[in-house]
């Protein structure tokens, strides 16, 4: 996966948006755009594009960002009628590419930041898929900024006058970029949440320390909380407690350990707090759960 990183400020800005209607047998033109990015999102059919020798198939719900200074062309004609929206955009700032996303770290506000914005990055995956739930919103945004229609059915290119202020066009463009940025952020959050789950599964006996966890993964504590809650519906502490209770349930199926011993083994310093959390999660006390398991064994 190639990522495109824009150094901000300044923000990238919209040049023009449009929609293209290709017939079966139509082929995307061969060209090099010297300073312009071309974001393409396919709504129906399929588009077959090649950039610098790398071939992409863009199907409904997928997108591709063509980059400046690289030869791109259609490597295969459309096999069915194809509709796609496109956005040409530009930046006067720096941009670069990498195989990995950039991890954004929030820094605490202080008085030296009153008059100058810290550098940050907009990172866009060059190629990917947009969730179905966002298609209608994305289509509305792209239709709203569209001022060009390329219609292969009637062999014409139509141009439309501005219906909005330039600020409104740029606002809509940034909303479009936000959808693609959030795609990467959601994936990052899922990955981060999974890493934290795996960490808790191995270190469930350790004391919970959100600041230490944030430092370990180089994220703000608020981002840690948001990522875990989005994936599991629980706060990091609730997730850890749930994992501890799951571990305790297995130990309770054995006879040789007391509830107090099990509480200590799974990371609870206080047996009463362990019992409270166990009942909150399972609706049973530890002893009720043990007795339930024993009865289940008798009947089986």
Automatic annotation (TrEMBL):
Pfam families from the UniProt entry: AraC_binding, HTH_18
Signal peptide annotation: none
Keywords annotated in UniProt: DNA-binding, Transcription, Transcription regulation
InterPro entries: AraC-bd, Homeodomain-like_sf, HTH-like, HTH_AraC, HTH_AraC-typ_CS, Tscrpt_reg_AraC-type_HTH
The HTH araC/xylS-type domain, residue ranges: 194-292
Protein name: Helix-turn-helix domain-containing protein
Native organism: Paenibacillus terreus
């Amino acid at each position: 996966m190639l990522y495109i990183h824009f150094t901000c400020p300044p923000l990238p800005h919209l040049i023009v948006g449009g929609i293209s209607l290709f017939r079966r047998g139509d082929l995307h033109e061969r060209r090099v755009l010297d300073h312009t990015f071309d974001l393409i999102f396919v709504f129906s059919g399929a588009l077959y594009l090649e950039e610098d020798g790398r071939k992409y198939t863009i199907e409904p719900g997928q997108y591709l960002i063509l980059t400046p200074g690289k030869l791109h062309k259609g490597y295969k004609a459309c096999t069915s009628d194809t509709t796609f929206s496109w956005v040409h955009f530009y930046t006067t700032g720096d941009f670069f590419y990498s195989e990995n996303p950039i991890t954004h770290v929030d820094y605490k506000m202080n008085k030296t930041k009153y008059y100058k914005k810290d550098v940050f990055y907009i990172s866009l995956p060059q190629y990917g898929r947009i969730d179905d739930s966002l298609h209608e919103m994305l289509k509305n945004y792209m239709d709203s900024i569209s001022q060009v229609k390329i219609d292969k059915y009637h062999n014409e290119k139509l141009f439309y006058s501005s219906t909005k202020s330039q600020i409104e066009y740029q606002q809509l463009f940034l909303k479009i970029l936000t959808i693609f940025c959030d795609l990467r952020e959601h994936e990052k959050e899922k990955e981060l949440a999974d890493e934290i789950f795996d960490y808790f599964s191995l270190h469930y006996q350790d004391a919970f320390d959100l600041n230490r966890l944030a430092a370990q993964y180089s994220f703000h504590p608020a981002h840690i909380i948001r990522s875990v809650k989005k994936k599991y519906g629980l706060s990091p502490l609730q997730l850890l407690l749930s994992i501890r209770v799951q571990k305790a349930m297995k130990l309770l199926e054995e006879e040789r350990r007391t509830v107090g011993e099990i509480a200590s083994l799974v990371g609870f310093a206080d047996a009463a707090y362990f019992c409270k959390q166990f009942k909150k999660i399972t609706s049973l006390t530890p002893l009720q759960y043990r007795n339930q398991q024993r009865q289940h064994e008798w009947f089986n």
